[in-house]
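G., the chain you wanted modeled:
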Amino acid sequence: MNAHVAIIADVVNSREFADFAARRDRALQAVQQQHGSQALTASDYAITAWDEFQVLLAGQAALPQVMWDLQREFYPLRLRLGIGCGEVQWARRQRDAVNEAASGEAFFLAREALDAISDQARGGSRSEILVRWNEPDLQHAINACARLLDVLLAGITAGQWQVINAYEQLGRQDAVAAAMEKTPSTISRTLRSANYWEIKASLDDLQQLLASRTLP
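Predicted structure as tokens:
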């Protein structure tokens, strides 16, 4: 089913940073520029509360890349991601602010997922990424991947994030080593210890699954 994907994100630890608003705005500007240029989003990112924002994706297969980029750009801020897939109704006159221009099932499901994250925290599961999809079998598959991704992300240190972000930008380990004045073997070990390759492979598999289930 060719439905839309909405993400509603909540910044968990905003009160820990006196310069939170500046950090939030820098991160949103970075992902807005990247995702807009790559045609991954169907709307601009919209701040809907002090520590909450939302976006509508251009296609279901964009979800893995967008999730990953949000986590990278916002660190050390921590995000809860409520993700919903369903129908969307656009206002007759579309605006950049998606919360004013669109509504519908995808946003209701994303809000339901975000609310459910808080409820889960009181029980056994503490995953900060949760999906509500309009296809139950796909919802289970994506949530299984999201829970494991959340665990791996939680184990990445500040130093490992620096190496990961440098590699994402430069694309070569020797270039990262030169830029960070480290040995290539150190960069390689850091990426392995951060489970970078496993994370990227899992996201690639999820992207292929979503691409195969999306109508042209």
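Residues 83 and 131 are 5 Å apart (CA to CA).

Shout if anything looks off.
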